[in-house]
């Protein structure tokens, strides 16, 4: 038989447990795997609006720098210095739009095999610290299997991964990357395809839903016309996102290389 003090303590614990259970819902089950999110910011290299604000974000980002522009090297070096990841933002031919929008060294579907490979290699050489590459525009070029195979061959030779920005549903990036043996990941969401604060905040809410639904998520924003808007919205959303997922660089989301089994 329990002595009176022990009985009293037991009753107190049971009452407290009962109150806690009744007062709130059962805690949500833990996720089977941790969530990760990579934020990519395109169009560095030309002293665009929002450049400094993006560099100063209190989370790692992946900085996509266009080659052969006035601040290409400066932006790549500064991004690297601040601990962000650098990739080449390769200008590629779109279905619609002026070629002049692409900037120098663009990859177009009328180029010879040799010229495409030379331009891709030159772009990589022009962007210091590049770990990977993604397409700037490119809805026509990324849908061309010949062009994409050549791009992937240079990426493989130089040890770069490829991020498909998914500017077209007809992209051949995944199939050619798999054929050539280049690590590939793909964009899930554009944050600022419309240049308004309300749209960017709406896209960030979509991003939170994606993070809740899948283990790894990539979202792309831009410096330039929406740069300050996107940087401000990201800064306000970082703490909320960090509650749901770890901020990572794109290279941390690459599929692990296949290993040879120890048994045969």
Commentary on this structure:
With 264 residues, this protein is an alpha/beta fold. It is built from eight helices and nine strands. It has helices at residues 4-23, 51-55, 72-81, 113-126, 145-158, 173-180, 197-213, 227-244; strands at residues 36-44, 62-65, 85-92, 130-137, 161-164, 184-186, 189-190, 216-222, 246-247. The protein is globular and about 50 Å long.
Main traits of this protein?
264 residues, alpha/beta, 9-stranded parallel sheet, 8 helices, 40% helix, disordered N terminus, disordered C terminus
Q: Helix and strand layout, with pairings?
A:
Layout: H1 4-23, E1 36-44, H2 51-55, E2 62-65, H3 72-81, E3 85-92, H4 113-126, E4 130-137, H5 145-158, E5 161-164, H6 173-180, E6 184-186, E7 189-190, H7 197-213, E8 216-222, H8 227-244, E9 246-247
Parallel strand pairs: 1-2, 1-8, 1-9, 2-3, 3-4, 4-5, 5-6, 7-8
Largest sheet: 9 strands, parallel
Tell me the number of strands: 9
**Termini gap:** 64 Å
Helical residues, percent:
40-55%
Indicate the proportion of strand residues: 15-25%
Instruction: Provide mean pLDDT, rounded.
Output: 89
Oligomer: single chain
Radius of gyration (CA) equals: 24 Å
Shape, principal axes of CA atoms: globular
Instruction: Spell the H/E element sequence.
Output: HEHEHEHEHEHEEHEHE
| Uncertain regions spanning at least 5 consecutive residues | 1-26, 259-264
Q: Number of DSSP helices? A: 8
- Backbone structural class: alpha/beta
